[in-house]
Description:
Layout lengths: L2 H4 L10 E7 L2 H17 L7 E4 L1 H11 L7 E4 H4 L4 H15 L6 E5 L11 H17 L5 E8 L5 H8 L11 H9 L11 E3 L4 H10 L4 H18 L2 E7 L6 E6 L24 H7 L2 E7 L2 E7 L2
Parallel strand pairs: 1-5, 2-3, 2-4, 4-5
Antiparallel strand pairs: 6-7, 7-8, 8-10, 9-10
Helix pairs in contact: 2-3, 5-6, 6-8, 9-10, 10-11
Amino acid sequence: MSADTRAHTGPVQGDFDHRMAVFGSDDEFVAAALPFLAEGLAAPDEPPPVAIVAPAGLDLLRDALGADARKVGFIAHTDWYTGSAANAVAQSAGYLAAHAGPGGRIHLLMEPDWAGRAGSSPRETAEWVRYESLANLLFAPFSTTAMCAYDTRVAGLALVEAARRAHPATGVYEPPPALVRELDAVPLPPPPDDATPLSAPAAEVVRAWSAQHRLPAAHAELFTTAVTEAAAALGPVTGTLLWGRAPSCVCELRLSHRVADPLAGFVPPPTGELEPGQGLWFTRQVCAYVDVRDHAEGSTVRIQYA
C-alpha cells in the first residue's frame, strides 16, 4: 500500500474524500484496493462500492474478494474513460446522480485508462492533472469517497508525481486554482500564418468552413455548435480564427475580458442530457481540447475538435 493511501485512512463526512493509491505490482494493487472496498462495504447508508479499473485488475479483485465479490460493483475502465477529461467529469456526475446514496455517498475505486488519452503525452498529462485537481472543487458538495489508482508500470513516474499535487493527502497538494494557473501558464503555440480570420463566429460561416476542410457533415455540425455555444457563453468575441484540416479543426476566440473561472465549462448542467444551450459545457464535451488563457488584454479560448 502506498504512503498516499496510508496517510488518509477514513472518510471525511460531508466532503468529497479524494485519495490516491500508487502501486507497481499486482500484489500492491490488491493490498491497496481491498481495505478501501471493505471500508465501502462497511459504510452505513451507502450502496456497494464500485471498482472501475483495468479488466485484469477486476479479475484480481474478484479472486481476492472471494464470496464478497458479489457485493461489489465492477466496471471496466475502458467503459468509463472513453474520451477527454471533461467526458470523465460527465461520467462521474451522471453515475453519482443515478447510483450514489444520500448526499452522493459511495466508494469508488478509479483507475484511468492509460492506453487511451490520459497521460499519453505532456499535453494529455496536463489535461489529466487539471481534471484531478478540479475534481476537488466539482465534487466538494458530495460525500463521495474516491481512490484514484495509479499503476507506475503504465502511468509513468512523471504523471504520478504530477497527480500527487491534485490529491489532498499526499503532502504535496496544491489548491486547484493555484495548480490550474500553473498549467495555464504554458503558452499556446501561435496560430499558423494561413489561419482564416472571421469577423464573427457565425454558425453558417463556421459550418461552411468546416465542410471545406473535410469534416463530415455530422462532425461539422458538432464543431459549429461547439464554437457558437462557447461564443455565446463567453462573449462578446472580438476576434475569431479558424485553421486545420479534418479531424483536427481549430477555432480560436479572442475576448476583451478575462474568463478567470477555472471551472468554466466543467460544471455539469442540471440535466444529464447533452444538448445545445449548455454553453462551454457542451463545447468541452464534444471537443478534444478547450484551452482558456487569460492575459492582460483579455482571454484566448482555443477549441480543437479532435
